[in-house]
Amino acid sequence: MRTQVAIIGGGPAGLLLSRLLHLQGIDSVVLESRDRDYVEHRQRAGMLEQGTTDALRDSGVGERLDREGLVHHGLELRFGGAGHRVPLTDLTGRTVTVYAQTEIVKDLVARRLADGGDVRFEAEVVDLDASAPRVTYRSGGETRTLDCDYIAGCDGFHGVSRPAVPGLRTFSRDYPFAWLGILADVRPSTEELIYAHHDRGFALHSLRSSTVSRLYLQVPPDEDIAAWSDARIWDELAARFATDDGWKLHEGPITDRSITPMRSFVAEPMRHDRLFLAGDAGHIVPPTGAKGLNLAVSDVIILARALAERYATGSETLLDGYSDACLRRVWRAEHFSYWMTTLLHADPAASAFERRLQRAHLDYVVSSEAASASLAENYVGLPLE
Predict the structure, then answer these.
(1) Which long-range contacts (CB under 8 A, 24 or more apart) does 56-61 make?
(2) Residue 38 annotated among the catalytic residues of the structure
């Protein structure tokens, strides 16, 4: 079997890349190790930069996003018993949109199948050759080989693509806390996201729809999720979101819960021969800045442009510059995510002096238009080069 671009990974990065290539008349095959139901229902990110929503619309998968997505013009930083709104749109002219990654995947899968695209679920890649190039995978009890011109590694942090890059340089930081995240069938208690800094730990109130809330609590990285009953979760959330004016948190049935470690990670370069890394295969950010999914989308937009130039003109100039172009954006997002994480979380090892510095920094961010504008500019997403 042969195709022009073999795409390893059927998440939003791999599926969007396949769709973008299709629009340029470039053939691809998507190989996803999990079944379709798993891919369409695994809970992931849900905050989209304006550039990401624009890209989804431009690629023809924005209809349901525009109908169901929740457009936000601001966010709230909450600390010291009070909320402080950061007016994102007033400061930048741009917006963000809440629309779950699960829904993006459903939209992209439906679109690719309607296009006649080749998306192969339960196809586990067991080997790849970046020079030939070739991908070997196992499906339906058989081992098969897919020859191609290029390979796109969109298979996440634990995939096979990154280990296939020799001489890789990696940079990482593990944080002394994790997030306990829940989905709850209850209308959100807020119209815009609330990022809460509290001595007991960080909390985040996000949304999934007008009837579903997504909330997070800072917990130790080795926390046992079984120790958190529904009542304990709601009590702790209420304590961390509490304000002096008596703001109330709506409670409801919890339908999903998980613990996510906090990590920063970058691999360089993001290319080896004819293999290109994209999304979590090349970098991880702590979720505080809402950058993971958005970085994956920007990676595949850059890669799709480079491949389109290669097939249209024969030039590999953009392909040669792919890693550098992606990494400039990645490192900016890494810094912003690190900054948001250290600004808002309670470090268990912090001294009293460090905690007072953190509070002073929060006061500055919400009282200075320049500081608020810097947060807003990075949060809504920098323009794609």
Answers:
(1) 56/16, 56/104, 56/107, 56/297, 59/16, 59/19, 59/20, 59/23, 60/19, 60/23, 60/111, 61/19, 61/104, 61/107, 61/108, 61/111
(2) no
Choose the catalytic residue: 72, 106, 198, 283. Answer: 72
**Any catalytic annotation for residue 195?**
yes
**150 among known catalytic residues:** no
Digitized pLDDT (tens) for each residue of the chain, 385 residues in all:
999 999 999 999 999 999 999 999 999 999 999 999 999 988 777 899 999 999 999 999 999 999 999 999 999 999 999 999 999 999 999 999 999 999 999 999 999 999 999 999 999 999 999 999 999 999 999 999 999 999 999 999 999 999 999 999 999 999 999 999 999 999 999 999 999 999 999 999 999 888 999 999 999 999 999 999 999 999 999 999 999 999 999 999 999 999 999 999 999 999 999 999 999 999 999 999 999 999 999 999 999 999 999 999 999 999 999 999 999 999 999 999 999 999 999 999 999 999 999 999 999 999 999 999 999 999 999 988 6
To the query of whether residue 287 is one of the catalytic residues in this protein, the response is: yes
How many CB atoms are located within 10 Å of the residue 114 CB?
Answer: 9
Of 12, 287, 322, 345, the active-site residue reads 287
Cis peptide before 253 (omega within 30 of 0): no
| Distinct helix (H) and strand (E) counts, the chain | 12, 20
Instruction: Name the active-site residue from 150, 195, 216, 322.
Output: 195
* Count of beta carbons in the 10 Å neighbourhood of residue 208: 21
